[in-house]
Write a structure and sequence with these properties.
Helices cover 0% and strands 61% of the residues. It has 122 residues and is mainly beta. The strands form 2 sheets. Strands 2, 4, 5, 6, 9, 10 and 11 form a 7-stranded mixed beta sheet that branches. Strands 1-3-8-7 form a 4-stranded antiparallel beta sheet, with no helix packed on it. The radius of gyration is 14 Å and the shape is elongated. The relative contact order is 0.33.
């Protein structure tokens, strides 16, 4: 019913920047919170940043000052700009959204993107 398609990952040198994007499509009535998570090699998935439907943002400590989350409600998209990247930012980054489907009987559903690999070389 809903697909999340991510793009923008890749290989970058330390100190460089990347912009990740995630676009939702399908039977969507409303998108509530959107966010980005990451899973470093050998570690559990962790939160990076979230943004509400009205644009309020929240960042975990390692993302503050260097990462920026934004969304385009008209395009059903969320982006993550990552600056001054460090090798420890190497991870699979996934977008997450809470979506009210057009079928109101289903309530708000949590969806995940397929993940996009980010590798930061030293």
């Amino acid at each position: 019913q809903v697909q999340l398609v991510e793009s923008g990952g890749g290989l970058v040198q330390a100190g460089g920047s990347l912009r990740l994007s995630c676009v939702a499509s399908g039977s969507i009535f409303r998108i509530d919170d959107m966010g980005w998570y990451r899973q470093p090699p050998g570690n559990q998935r962790e939160l990076v940043a979230t943004i509400t439907s009205t644009g309020s943002t929240n960042y975990v400590d390692f993302a503050k000052g260097r990462f920026s989350i934004s969304r385009d409600n008209g395009k059903k998209a969320v982006s993550l700009h990552m600056n001054t990247l460090k090798p420890e930012a190497t991870a699979v980054y996934s977008c997450n959204t809470r979506i009210q489907l057009r079928d109101m009987t289903l309530g708000v559903v949590n969806y995940w993107g397929q993940g996009t690999q980010v590798v930061v070389s030293s």
